Amino acid sequence: MATRLGFDRLFRSLARLTPLSLGLGYAGSLAVGTAVYYLASINRREFLLLLGALVALVAVSVVLTLVTWYQHDPVVRGAFFLGTTTPIGKLIGFSVAALFGVRSGGGTLLATGSFFGIPIAILLSTIVFAILISLGRRFRGTVGPENV
Predict the structure, then answer these.
(1) What is the predicted pLDDT for the residue at 85?
(2) How far, in Å, are 12, 55, 76, 137 from residue 3 at the CA level?
(3) Residue at 36 is within a domain
(4) Structural domain contains residue 108
(5) Is 118 part of a structural domain of the chain?
(6) What is the pLDDT of residue 11?
C-alpha cells in the first residue's frame, strides 16, 4: 500500500532516524494534535476538532507503520517505544489545552492531576501496541511493503 501511494521512500528514510529524534517528532506531533483537539472541544470548533483528530491519527499511523514494518527491532522494544511516547505526547497536549483552555483555576489542577495516570497509561499502551505490532508483523507478507 505504501509503495503504491509513493510513501515507501519516505518511510524508509524515517526508519533510519534515531529513536530519540523519531520519538520527539512523534510525541510533538501527537501533542499538537491532542492540544488542538481538546482546545477545539472546549471552544466548540468543529473544523479544528476534526483537524486535531486527523493530525493525531496520521502521527500514530505513520509511527506504527514504521515500527511494525520498516524497523527490525524486537516487538517488545517497539511496543515500549510506542507505549511510552504516546501517553507522554497525549499528556503534553492535554496539559497545554487544560492550562490555556479552561478559564478558571481548575485547568492547572486538571493538568497536574493528569501526570499521575502516566504509569498506568504506559503499561496499557505498551500491551496494546505489542499486540498491534505482533499482528502487523504476522501479516507483513500479505499487507506489508515488499522487500522489507
Answers:
(1) 94
(2) 11, 22, 27, 17
(3) yes
(4) yes
(5) yes
(6) 75
Q: Which helix (H) or strand (E) holds 92?
A: helix 75-101
Give CA–CA dist 97/36, Å, rounded. Answer: 7
Whole-model pTM? 0.81
pLDDT tens-digit readout, 94-126: 888 888 877 766 667 766 777 788 889 999 999
How many domains does the structure of the chain reveal?
Answer: 1
> Dihedral sign, CA of 75, 65, 2, 73?
negative
76-108 residues labelled b (16+ CB within 10 A) or e (exposed): eebbbbbbbbbbbbbbbbbbbbbeebbeeeebe
H or E element in which residue 146 lies: none
Q: Report the distance separating Cα 113 and Cα 69, nearest Å.
A: 36
For the record, the C-alpha cell of 1 comes out as 500500500
Domain that holds residue 9: 2-142
Any domain includes 147: no
Give the Cα separation of 29 and 85 in Å (integer): 11
- Residue pLDDT, tens place only, 13-68: 777 778 888 889 899 999 999 999 988 888 888 898 899 899 999 999 889 888 88
